[in-house]
Amino acid sequence: MNAFTIKDLESLSGIKAHTIRIWEQRYSFLNPQRTETNIRYYTNDELKTILNISLLNKYGFKISHIDKMSSSEIKEKILSLSQAEANQERIINDLIQHMADMDMDSFEAVLDNYISARGIEKAITYIIFPYLEKIGILWVTNHINPAQEHLVTNIIRQKLIVGIESTVCHIKVNKTALLFLPEGEHHELGLLFMYYLLKSRGVKVLYIGANVPLADIEYVTKLKKADFLYAHLTSVAHHFNFEKFLNKLTLRISSTPVIISGQVSQTYKKKTAANVHLKRSLHEVMEFIATL
Protein backbone atom coordinates (compact mmCIF):
# COMPACT_ATOMS: atom_id res chain seq x y z
CA MET A 1 0.00 0.00 0.00
CA ASN A 2 1.17 3.52 -0.76
CA ALA A 3 0.51 6.47 1.51
CA PHE A 4 -0.24 9.60 -0.49
CA THR A 5 -0.44 13.09 0.96
CA ILE A 6 -3.17 15.56 0.08
CA LYS A 7 -0.57 17.43 -1.99
CA ASP A 8 0.08 14.24 -3.97
CA LEU A 9 -3.64 13.97 -4.68
CA GLU A 10 -3.69 17.61 -5.76
CA SER A 11 -0.76 17.08 -8.15
CA LEU A 12 -2.18 13.90 -9.67
CA SER A 13 -5.83 14.93 -9.95
CA GLY A 14 -5.61 18.68 -10.51
CA ILE A 15 -8.07 19.25 -7.64
CA LYS A 16 -6.86 21.81 -5.10
CA ALA A 17 -6.12 20.51 -1.60
CA HIS A 18 -8.62 23.01 -0.19
CA THR A 19 -11.37 21.56 -2.40
CA ILE A 20 -10.45 18.00 -1.43
CA ARG A 21 -10.81 18.93 2.26
CA ILE A 22 -14.27 20.43 1.58
CA TRP A 23 -15.31 17.27 -0.27
CA GLU A 24 -14.20 15.17 2.70
CA GLN A 25 -16.43 17.19 5.01
CA ARG A 26 -19.50 17.14 2.77
CA TYR A 27 -19.37 13.74 1.06
CA SER A 28 -18.60 10.14 1.87
CA PHE A 29 -16.30 9.02 -0.93
CA LEU A 30 -13.00 10.00 0.79
CA ASN A 31 -11.98 8.74 4.23
CA PRO A 32 -8.31 9.53 4.80
CA GLN A 33 -6.31 7.88 7.54
CA ARG A 34 -4.18 9.96 9.90
CA THR A 35 -0.67 9.53 11.19
CA GLU A 36 0.21 9.70 14.90
CA THR A 37 0.90 13.41 14.35
CA ASN A 38 -2.61 13.86 12.84
CA ILE A 39 -1.48 14.33 9.22
CA ARG A 40 -3.86 13.02 6.55
CA TYR A 41 -2.72 10.24 4.23
CA TYR A 42 -4.55 8.40 1.47
CA THR A 43 -4.42 4.83 0.20
CA ASN A 44 -4.26 3.50 -3.36
CA ASP A 45 -8.04 3.11 -3.36
CA GLU A 46 -8.57 6.73 -2.37
CA LEU A 47 -6.15 7.85 -5.06
CA LYS A 48 -8.23 5.95 -7.63
CA THR A 49 -11.42 7.48 -6.23
CA ILE A 50 -10.19 11.06 -6.47
CA LEU A 51 -8.86 10.50 -10.01
CA ASN A 52 -12.22 9.12 -11.16
CA ILE A 53 -14.29 11.76 -9.41
CA SER A 54 -12.15 14.66 -10.62
CA LEU A 55 -12.46 13.40 -14.20
CA LEU A 56 -16.25 13.15 -14.05
CA ASN A 57 -16.52 16.51 -12.30
CA LYS A 58 -14.34 18.18 -14.94
CA TYR A 59 -16.62 16.93 -17.69
CA GLY A 60 -19.93 18.05 -16.27
CA PHE A 61 -21.02 15.75 -13.45
CA LYS A 62 -21.95 17.39 -10.14
CA ILE A 63 -20.12 16.17 -7.04
CA SER A 64 -23.41 15.67 -5.20
CA HIS A 65 -24.54 13.29 -7.98
CA ILE A 66 -21.21 11.45 -8.14
CA ASP A 67 -21.35 10.89 -4.37
CA LYS A 68 -24.53 8.83 -4.81
CA MET A 69 -23.07 6.62 -7.58
CA SER A 70 -21.74 3.13 -6.98
CA SER A 71 -18.23 2.19 -8.13
CA SER A 72 -19.63 0.41 -11.19
CA GLU A 73 -21.74 3.45 -12.10
CA ILE A 74 -18.70 5.73 -11.85
CA LYS A 75 -16.71 3.40 -14.09
CA GLU A 76 -19.59 3.25 -16.58
CA LYS A 77 -19.89 7.06 -16.69
CA ILE A 78 -16.14 7.45 -17.22
CA LEU A 79 -16.20 5.02 -20.14
CA SER A 80 -19.12 6.93 -21.65
CA LEU A 81 -17.17 10.21 -21.85
CA SER A 82 -16.76 10.92 -25.55
CA GLN A 83 -14.49 13.98 -25.60
CA ALA A 84 -10.96 13.28 -26.86
CA GLU A 85 -9.43 15.13 -23.90
CA ALA A 86 -11.51 13.11 -21.44
CA ASN A 87 -10.39 9.86 -23.06
CA GLN A 88 -6.77 10.97 -22.86
CA GLU A 89 -7.11 11.83 -19.16
CA ARG A 90 -8.87 8.53 -18.46
CA ILE A 91 -5.97 6.59 -19.98
CA ILE A 92 -3.41 8.58 -17.98
CA ASN A 93 -5.44 7.94 -14.81
CA ASP A 94 -5.51 4.22 -15.66
CA LEU A 95 -1.71 4.24 -15.87
CA ILE A 96 -1.44 5.96 -12.49
CA GLN A 97 -3.82 3.43 -10.93
CA HIS A 98 -2.01 0.42 -12.43
CA MET A 99 1.29 1.88 -11.19
CA ALA A 100 -0.13 2.25 -7.66
CA ASP A 101 -1.31 -1.38 -7.75
CA MET A 102 1.98 -2.54 -9.31
CA ASP A 103 -0.09 -4.20 -12.03
CA MET A 104 2.56 -3.93 -14.74
CA ASP A 105 0.77 -6.26 -17.18
CA SER A 106 -2.23 -3.93 -17.26
CA PHE A 107 0.04 -0.88 -17.35
CA GLU A 108 1.83 -2.16 -20.44
CA ALA A 109 -1.42 -3.32 -22.06
CA VAL A 110 -2.87 0.19 -21.80
CA LEU A 111 0.19 1.62 -23.55
CA ASP A 112 0.29 -1.11 -26.20
CA ASN A 113 -3.40 -0.67 -27.02
CA TYR A 114 -3.00 3.08 -27.47
CA ILE A 115 0.17 2.69 -29.57
CA SER A 116 -1.59 0.11 -31.75
CA ALA A 117 -4.58 2.41 -32.29
CA ARG A 118 -2.88 5.82 -32.56
CA GLY A 119 0.82 5.27 -33.22
CA ILE A 120 3.92 5.81 -31.13
CA GLU A 121 4.19 9.61 -31.58
CA LYS A 122 0.66 10.30 -30.35
CA ALA A 123 1.20 7.83 -27.50
CA ILE A 124 4.35 9.68 -26.48
CA THR A 125 2.86 13.15 -26.91
CA TYR A 126 -0.63 12.67 -25.49
CA ILE A 127 -0.17 9.84 -22.97
CA ILE A 128 3.41 9.10 -21.91
CA PHE A 129 4.71 12.66 -21.55
CA PRO A 130 1.69 14.03 -19.62
CA TYR A 131 1.82 10.92 -17.42
CA LEU A 132 5.49 11.54 -16.63
CA GLU A 133 4.77 15.18 -15.83
CA LYS A 134 2.10 14.09 -13.33
CA ILE A 135 4.06 11.42 -11.51
CA GLY A 136 7.36 13.32 -11.51
CA ILE A 137 6.28 15.02 -8.30
CA LEU A 138 5.98 11.61 -6.60
CA TRP A 139 9.62 10.91 -7.44
CA VAL A 140 10.64 14.21 -5.89
CA THR A 141 8.69 13.60 -2.67
CA ASN A 142 9.57 9.88 -2.45
CA HIS A 143 5.87 9.03 -2.26
CA ILE A 144 6.29 6.23 -4.75
CA ASN A 145 7.89 2.89 -4.03
CA PRO A 146 11.29 2.62 -5.80
CA ALA A 147 10.23 -0.76 -7.17
CA GLN A 148 7.18 0.85 -8.80
CA GLU A 149 9.33 3.58 -10.28
CA HIS A 150 11.80 1.10 -11.77
CA LEU A 151 9.09 -1.13 -13.22
CA VAL A 152 7.24 1.79 -14.80
CA THR A 153 10.43 3.42 -16.03
CA ASN A 154 11.66 0.28 -17.77
CA ILE A 155 8.37 -0.29 -19.57
CA ILE A 156 8.15 3.30 -20.83
CA ARG A 157 11.85 3.33 -21.71
CA GLN A 158 11.33 0.30 -23.94
CA LYS A 159 8.46 2.01 -25.76
CA LEU A 160 10.47 5.20 -26.26
CA ILE A 161 13.52 3.34 -27.59
CA VAL A 162 11.35 1.40 -30.04
CA GLY A 163 9.88 4.71 -31.17
CA ILE A 164 13.35 6.29 -31.58
CA GLU A 165 14.72 3.34 -33.53
CA SER A 166 11.71 3.06 -35.81
CA THR A 167 11.30 6.74 -36.67
CA VAL A 168 12.48 7.85 -40.10
CA CYS A 169 12.51 11.46 -41.29
CA HIS A 170 13.09 12.11 -44.98
CA ILE A 171 13.72 15.80 -44.36
CA LYS A 172 17.14 16.53 -42.89
CA VAL A 173 17.55 19.60 -40.71
CA ASN A 174 21.10 20.97 -40.65
CA LYS A 175 21.18 21.00 -36.84
CA THR A 176 22.94 18.88 -34.24
CA ALA A 177 21.52 18.61 -30.73
CA LEU A 178 23.43 17.35 -27.69
CA LEU A 179 21.05 15.77 -25.15
CA PHE A 180 22.19 15.30 -21.57
CA LEU A 181 21.17 15.27 -17.91
CA PRO A 182 23.39 16.89 -15.27
CA GLU A 183 25.05 15.06 -12.42
CA GLY A 184 22.44 13.98 -9.89
CA GLU A 185 19.65 13.58 -12.47
CA HIS A 186 18.91 9.99 -13.46
CA HIS A 187 15.34 10.22 -14.81
CA GLU A 188 15.95 10.09 -18.54
CA LEU A 189 12.48 9.32 -19.89
CA GLY A 190 11.69 12.96 -20.67
CA LEU A 191 15.05 13.28 -22.43
CA LEU A 192 14.36 10.15 -24.49
CA PHE A 193 11.04 11.72 -25.46
CA MET A 194 12.96 14.78 -26.73
CA TYR A 195 15.33 12.45 -28.60
CA TYR A 196 12.33 10.99 -30.38
CA LEU A 197 10.79 14.38 -31.22
CA LEU A 198 14.04 15.82 -32.56
CA LYS A 199 15.03 12.75 -34.57
CA SER A 200 11.54 12.46 -36.08
CA ARG A 201 11.95 16.02 -37.39
CA GLY A 202 15.34 15.47 -39.00
CA VAL A 203 17.64 16.84 -36.28
CA LYS A 204 20.90 14.92 -35.67
CA VAL A 205 20.96 13.87 -32.01
CA LEU A 206 24.00 13.21 -29.84
CA TYR A 207 22.62 11.43 -26.78
CA ILE A 208 25.06 11.27 -23.86
CA GLY A 209 22.39 10.39 -21.30
CA ALA A 210 21.98 10.87 -17.57
CA ASN A 211 24.27 11.98 -14.73
CA VAL A 212 26.88 13.64 -16.97
CA PRO A 213 29.66 15.87 -15.52
CA LEU A 214 29.83 19.41 -16.93
CA ALA A 215 33.39 18.82 -18.16
CA ASP A 216 32.15 16.00 -20.40
CA ILE A 217 29.27 18.12 -21.71
CA GLU A 218 31.71 20.91 -22.57
CA TYR A 219 34.12 18.50 -24.28
CA VAL A 220 31.50 16.84 -26.50
CA THR A 221 29.86 20.18 -27.35
CA LYS A 222 33.14 21.57 -28.69
CA LEU A 223 34.30 18.34 -30.31
CA LYS A 224 31.07 17.68 -32.21
CA LYS A 225 30.16 21.38 -32.69
CA ALA A 226 26.62 20.94 -31.38
CA ASP A 227 24.19 23.67 -32.44
CA PHE A 228 22.34 23.50 -29.14
CA LEU A 229 22.19 21.54 -25.88
CA TYR A 230 18.98 20.11 -24.43
CA ALA A 231 18.17 18.88 -20.93
CA HIS A 232 14.78 17.78 -19.59
CA LEU A 233 14.68 17.69 -15.78
CA THR A 234 11.83 15.47 -14.60
CA SER A 235 13.00 15.48 -10.99
CA VAL A 236 16.35 16.06 -9.37
CA ALA A 237 18.09 15.06 -6.17
CA HIS A 238 17.27 17.12 -3.09
CA HIS A 239 20.80 18.51 -2.95
CA PHE A 240 20.72 19.64 -6.60
CA ASN A 241 20.97 23.43 -6.89
CA PHE A 242 19.54 24.51 -10.24
CA GLU A 243 20.86 28.06 -10.03
CA LYS A 244 24.37 26.88 -9.23
CA PHE A 245 24.17 24.37 -12.09
CA LEU A 246 23.15 27.13 -14.53
CA ASN A 247 25.99 29.37 -13.38
CA LYS A 248 28.60 26.61 -13.79
CA LEU A 249 27.14 25.57 -17.14
CA THR A 250 27.23 29.06 -18.62
CA LEU A 251 30.79 29.61 -17.40
CA ARG A 252 31.86 26.60 -19.48
CA ILE A 253 29.41 27.01 -22.37
CA SER A 254 28.51 30.64 -22.99
CA SER A 255 27.81 30.79 -26.72
CA THR A 256 25.95 27.57 -27.53
CA PRO A 257 22.18 27.77 -26.84
CA VAL A 258 21.01 25.59 -23.93
CA ILE A 259 17.35 24.54 -23.83
CA ILE A 260 15.95 23.23 -20.53
CA SER A 261 12.45 21.87 -19.96
CA GLY A 262 10.75 19.90 -17.20
CA GLN A 263 9.48 20.63 -13.71
CA VAL A 264 12.52 22.57 -12.57
CA SER A 265 12.15 25.01 -15.46
CA GLN A 266 8.50 25.58 -14.57
CA THR A 267 9.25 26.90 -11.09
CA TYR A 268 12.48 28.83 -11.68
CA LYS A 269 11.73 32.57 -11.80
CA LYS A 270 15.15 34.24 -11.89
CA LYS A 271 16.73 35.69 -15.01
CA THR A 272 18.98 33.30 -16.94
CA ALA A 273 22.05 33.88 -19.11
CA ALA A 274 21.40 34.94 -22.69
CA ASN A 275 22.13 31.47 -24.10
CA VAL A 276 19.84 29.61 -21.63
CA HIS A 277 16.20 29.19 -22.63
CA LEU A 278 13.65 27.62 -20.28
CA LYS A 279 10.66 25.85 -21.85
CA ARG A 280 7.94 25.70 -19.22
CA SER A 281 5.35 23.56 -21.06
CA LEU A 282 5.02 20.95 -23.80
CA HIS A 283 3.49 23.67 -25.98
CA GLU A 284 6.64 25.80 -25.64
CA VAL A 285 8.79 22.75 -26.38
CA MET A 286 6.84 22.01 -29.56
CA GLU A 287 7.05 25.66 -30.62
CA PHE A 288 10.83 25.53 -30.24
CA ILE A 289 11.11 22.34 -32.29
CA ALA A 290 8.96 23.90 -35.03
CA THR A 291 11.54 26.68 -35.42
CA LEU A 292 14.42 24.29 -36.19
Commentary on this structure:
This protein is an alpha/beta fold. It has 2 domains: 6-163, no CATH class; 168-290, Cobalamin-binding domain (Rossmann fold, 3-Layer(aba) Sandwich), CATH 3.40.50. It is 59% helix and 12% strand. The chain is built from 14 helices and 7 strands. The protein has helices at 6-13, 17-26, 44-58, 63-66, 71-80, 84-101, 104-118, 120-141, 146-166, 189-200, 214-224, 242-252, 263-267, 282-290, and strands at residues 33-34, 40-41, 176-182, 204-212, 228-233, 258-262, 276-279. It has a 5-stranded parallel beta sheet, sandwiched between helices. Strands 1-2 form a two-stranded antiparallel sheet. The longest helix has 22 residues, at 120-141. The chain starts with 5 loop residues before the first helix and ends with a helix. The mean pLDDT is 86.
